[in-house]
Automatic annotation (TrEMBL):
Residues 224-332 form the TonB-dependent receptor plug domain. It is a multi-pass membrane protein. This is TonB-linked outer membrane protein, SusC/RagA family. It comes from Cyclobacterium xiamenense. One of its GO terms (cellular component) is cell outer membrane.
Length: 1121
């Protein structure tokens, strides 16, 4: 297995290296050929236009695409929307320019392969002689005359270039007739032809309109203006606005319809992403993640460096997602990493250092308060209280704050060096990064190294080659935060304060034999936090090489091969110890290993054709993908010496492992049609074949269609000075979900030991009942939306309504115990509805000298199980969640007419009072002070018939709002995220607010019921008996509203004055002070309202004290040079 893995990594590495080598050889060859070649004249090159009438923009684009010539002109002096009419479609470039010049009243000058457009009013077409090299100086400003520092000035076709200084000035040498390409982020680029002038004054126009924004839509890109589906985009500016360790964290609250929940504060990241609700009951609800064209198989996203990301596009409706077919039912998240830009090589160094603290802690009883609870509980249970009634007993003098001892101030350090540059033909971008985190739980840390290199080369007019490579290595020492066990933070919160932590010599200690009979055999939670070793290493390499071949002007054929290899290994050692009454006589070693290998190969053809006012874009392609997963675990035990802590030193061994592989074979087609830039149509179909399903159901077809009408192009709105763009769109389509275990359609066997005679024999037994008719879950989705832009693009808004029905759900069908297998067969049955509304608005405003931008989004979603099938006697099925500890009862139930995993339990009705003894006793055997529950079925008996649906674990609404203010060199950013309309079951209160001794209790229990304190809802303390049973019942007493508004990010940045760096290598320096998770407004009493200890949707919304979220304060610096 290890050799196979090494070969796989070697093959993947060779593929990337070969791709780079091919690029280098082809670039060198192309450069040599170009040097030997001669410039062609415009009267020597013929061209055939696509139509007799074209706009200036279309005419320039066709000439540049079909000939070696490029145009250079001033954007402010050339009307690119003007219509040009030609007497014939064929002729030389010179003849076409003569016709265009007459209509535009401009002259054209050919200088080498550049055509300079000069608005003289006297049409002419001239070819200039060979140029001489002259020194050029210039100033780059914006429309208001303000200098633009850091703008790139590049001699087109070469690697010669520079950047403007603090005053917007630059200087360089260039040939007369050469073209200078001037660009800066947020502004329209300009081409200026070098004449006999030695000084230039260049004005860049701000790119106000978001309609020119390009988004990634799957196997290609589209202008945002032409999108007919529902796509949300998160820009690099928003992604990099605060220091984060995971891209999911950067995405939280940024996009409508996309709910990102941080379910814990673990160092390796615990996030869940849901797009437009929960569509599957037992299958995956995670979206497909695509990085630079490679669909990922592993869900370990902590190995993706968020500082390498330049944009995230989220495909939400069927029109946008259907191109990914069987994996797109839960939406698609497309991540694009940074690419190189032509110009001088630029370096950017980022560093941020911060400290982290746990946001919230539990308010627990002191030792003396616990003593009082002991006394009251034993009185109520008619037990001897003599030991507990003595306030001077040594046990009550100990008051250990376990939450303080087991946690610390975390430290986060991040260092990142990025670089970018290249020529007009070849661009490169890369980075190296190091992240070091020391967790807030003691003895936990995480170190991650990142490496990225992206190279793109235009070999010639026919061929372009791009390679993207990303590598990472993680080294972790993490705490075991078993949410349903007794480790991690939970062990700190649940341990008695009267249990000592250290003895007089500073050694770990615990309850001894003398005290144990009276105070419980309580362990020291620091033993588990400090003594074991839990190490894990994860190495990941992913990337792709893509060849774009353009044999015809309108046709591009692309071949892409990519891969994602993840290798994980671990080591944990449980030591030998004897502390107090607790002893571990033997040590044990566990060594887990896993390998995940994902290969993908795509071939696509893109054809684009425009004539008159019609534009067609066609995409056709084939894709093949293979997934291989290997894991093995070896456990050894038996050592009695902690020095012998290696696997080879153990005596008894146990090994297990799995190897599975699956594949996906696909073909797809997409057509985009535009008429007059007003009517827009998109049609998509994909056919997928997956080895996860049987031969008869292996292939599925997933079609979609959408239409959009740009109302703003109608005559009655064209003259509007307020409205820039108004587009109405609608879509409908079918997508699939194949994310279940491999080969569920087969009956599988596994080795099982049994005793035959006096010997242990290994045999085989069936593990499941296969279903050869199993097929994918399918989702039908309708979407209607509107996109709007106002006031020169300063305000952009979008709104969507969607109706999403997931059917043929993959669920386990109940079977009788006599079937002889433990695992229930997976079948297709039932359906789930998600419907909702999304709205987002972005604005850019100016108030005096303050620039102010706002980004706001909100989403509403309703989730409902429509059908979940029937059993053998025709009764509707329902699926319970997992049992809550101690009570051994589920808190969730999935049933038709209610949300997936809805809360289903008894309703708490306070406590029984004096005078209600007879009713309490007859109904549930209770006495005054015991918990009281509603008798909903009216039968006078406390039973399961009194359970009812009481809450929803899924937020009905969520969103975020970000405000950014800029004044001179200062920038202030304030970002809130929020969610509401849902509940969380606080299991910590179920365990620690019961008023039961021998377990820790929350301080709120001090207000328990007594005859003197009857006006309370906190039951009386008790030890054993019926009362203890009643207080552990799963009821809405501990079901809490979890609505919250969180100040997710507050940052203040300052850019050092540019004049400080005039004439120096450093171009800019920025310092930022950032606070994350600073405030939260909520009525939820647990550690965090987003917490969910269960990953199963059937048991959603259960808070069982996961690793707490942290508050981070950091200082960062960014230097560009």
């Amino acid at each position: 297995m290890k050799n196979y893995l090494l070969k796989a990594i070697l093959m993947l590495s060779k593929g990337f290296l070969y791709g780079l080598l091919v690029q280098m050889l082809l670039v060198n060859f192309a450069s040599i050929m170009q040097a030997k070649g001669q410039y062609k004249r415009i009267d020597e090159v013929s061209i055939r236009l696509s139509a007799p009438s074209l706009s200036v923009r279309q005419f320039f684009n066709e000439v540049e695409r079909k000939t070696p010539f490029k145009f250079a002109y001033d954007n402010k002096k050339v009307d690119k929307s003007q219509l040009l009419v030609f007497d014939s479609e064929s002729g030389t470039v010179e003849e076409r320019l003569q016709v265009a010049g007459q209509q535009l009243q401009v002259s054209f000058r050919q200088i080498n392969h550049t055509i300079d457009v000069v608005p003289t009013g006297k049409p002419a077409v001239r070819v200039m002689p060979d140029a001489v090299r002259i020194p050029i100086t210039g100033t780059v400003t914006d429309e208001n005359g303000e200098a633009i520092p850091g703008a790139t000035v590049l001699v087109e076709g070469t690697s010669t270039g520079t950047a403007t200084d603090i005053d917007g000035k630059f200087s360089l040498d260039a040939d007369e007739g050469a073209v200078l390409l001037i660009s800066f982020i947020g502004y329209q680029s300009q081409r200026i032809t070098v004449g006999n002038q030695s000084s230039l004054s260049i004005t860049l126009l701000e790119d106000q309109s978001s309609l020119e924004e390009v988004v990634v839509v799957g196997y290609g890109t589209q202008k945002k203006a032409d999108i007919t589906g529902s796509v949300a985009s998160v820009s690099e500016e928003l992604l990099q606005s605060r220091p984060v360790a995971n891209f999911e964290d950067a995405l939280q609250g940024r996009a409508s319809g996309v709910q990102v929940r941080q379910t814990g504060g673990d160092l390796d990241g615990k996030f869940s992403i849901n797009i437009r609700g929960i569509g599957s009951v037992t299958g995956s609800n995670d979206p497909l993640i695509v990085v630079d064209g490679v669909p990922l198989f592993s869900s370990d996203f902590s190995t993706i460096n968020p500082k390498d990301i330049t944009a995230i596009d989220i495909l939400k409706d069927a029109s946008a997602t259907a191109i990914y077919g069987a994996r797109a039912a839960n939406g698609v998240v497309i991540i694009t990493t940074k690419k190189g830009q032509a110009g001088k090589t630029q370096f950017t160094f980022n560093t941020d250092i911060g400290v982290e603290e746990i946001v919230r802690r539990f308010d627990l009883m002191s030792s003396q308060e616990q003593r009082e609870l002991f006394v009251e509980a034993f009185k109520n249970s008619n037990r001897n209280i003599s030991v507990y009634d003595d306030p001077n007993h040594p046990a009550w003098q100990v008051d250990t704050d376990w939450q303080e001892l087991g946690t610390r101030t975390g430290v986060r350090q991040n260092y990142n060096l990025g670089f970018s540059g290249g020529s007009e033909k070849t661009q490169f971008s890369g980075s190296v990064s190091y992240l070091d985190r020391k967790g807030t739980l003691v003895n936990s840390d995480l170190k991650t190294w990142f490496l990225r290199l992206n190279v793109s080369s235009e070999i010639n007019k026919l061929l372009k080659v791009s390679t993207n490579m990303t590598g990472s290595h993680q080294k972790q020492n993490l705490q075991n935060n078993d949410n349903w066990g007794s480790t991690g933070y939970r062990s700190l919160a649940f341990e008695h304060s009267y249990t000592p932590a250290y003895d007089e010599n500073g050694n770990l200690t615990a309850i001894d034999n003398q005290a144990a009979p009276y105070f419980g055999a309580n362990n020291n939670p620091l033993i588990d936090l400090l003594m074991p070793a839990r190490e894990q290493d994860v190495t990941r390499l992913m990337g792709n090489t893509k060849f774009d071949f353009t044999p015809l002007d309108d046709l591009t054929i692309s071949a892409n091969i990519g891969g994602d290899v993840l290798v994980g290994s671990g080591y944990s050692y449980m030591p030998v110890y004897q502390i107090g009454i607790f002893t571990r006589p033997e040590g044990s070693v566990t060594v887990p290993n896993r390998q995940e290998i994902n290969w993908v190969s795509d071939i696509t053809a893109n054809y684009e054709k425009a004539f008159n006012q019609h534009v067609f874009k066609l995409l056709a392609g084939f894709s093949a993908q293979q997934f291989v997963f290997n894991n093995s675990t070896v456990t050894g035990a038996g050592t009695v010496n902690n020095s012998l802590n290696q696997l080879s030193n153990q005596i008894n061994f146990n090994a297990s492992g799995t190897k599975v592989s699956s594949g996906l074979l696909s073909s797809f087609f997409r057509i985009n049609y535009s008429y007059h830039d007003k009517l827009l149509l998109t049609g998509t179909v994909r056919r997928d074949g997956s080895s996860k399903f049987g031969p008869s159901t292996r292939f599925g077809v997933f079609p979609s269609g959408s239409i959009a009408w740009r109302v703003s192009e109608e005559e009655f709105l064209k003259s509007s000075n307020f409205l820039d763009d108004l587009k109405i769109r609608t879509s409908y389509g079918l997508t699939g979900n194949q994310e279940i275990g491999d080969f569920a359609f087969l009956t599988r066997a596994a080795s099982t030991p049994y005793v035959f005679g006096n010997s242990l024999v290994i045999g085989n037994s069936p593990q499941n009942i296969g279903n050869p008719f199993l097929q994918w879950e399918s989702t039908k989705q309708f979407d209607a939306g509107v996109d709007m832009s106002f006031i020169d693009g300063r305000i952009y808004a979008t709104a969507d309504y969607y109706n999403r029905v997931s059917q043929d759900l993959l669920v386990a069908s109940p079977i009788p115990l006599t079937a002889g297998v433990a695992q229930e067969p997976i079948v297709n049955l039932g359906s789930v509805l998600n419907s909702g509304f999304e709205f987002s608005i972005n604005s850019r405003n100016t108030v005096g000298k303050i620039a102010w931008s706002t980004n706001f989004n909100i989403s509403f979603n309703k989730n409902e199980v429509l059908d979940i099938g029937e059993n053998s006697i025709g009764e509707s099925l329902e699926i319970p969640g997992q049992n809550i500890p101690l009570s051994n009862q589920p808190a969730n139930l999935s049933r038709a007419g209610h949300p997936v995993g809805a809360f289903y339990m008894w309703q708490f009705d306070g406590v029984w009072q004096l005078g209600e003894e007879d009713e309490a006793s007859s109904w549930s055997g209770a006495v005054p002070g015991d918990p009281k529950y509603k008798d909903l079925n009216g039968n006078g008996v406390f039973d399961v018939g009194d359970k009812t649906f009481v809450g929803n674990p899924h937020p009905r609404y969520f969103g975020g709002i970000d405000n950014s203010f800029s004044y001179k060199n200062f920038n202030l950013s304030v970002f809130f995220d929020f969610a509401g309309g849902y509940q969380v079951y606080n299991t910590a209160r179920n365990l620690l607010a019961r008023g039961v001794p021998f377990v820790q209790n929350f301080a709120e229990v001090n207000g328990f019921w007594t005859p003197e304190n009857p006006s309370t809802t906190i039951p009386r303390p008790s030890q054993g008996g019926n009362t203890t049973t009643l207080v552990t019942m799963v009821s809405d007493r501990f079901l809490e509203t979890a609505d919250f508004i969180r100040l997710k990010n507050l940052s203040l940045s300052y850019n050092l004055p540019q004049q400080w760096f005039a004439g120096k290598a450093i171009q800019s320096t920025k310092f930022t002070l950032t606070g994350t998770n600073l405030l939260i407004f909520t009525n939820y009493t647990g550690l965090d309202p987003e917490a969910s200890s269960r990953t199963s949707l059937l048991s959603s919304g259960i808070d069982y004290t996961p690793y707490p979220q942290t508050r981070l304060v950091s200082l960062s610096a960014q230097v560009t040079f």
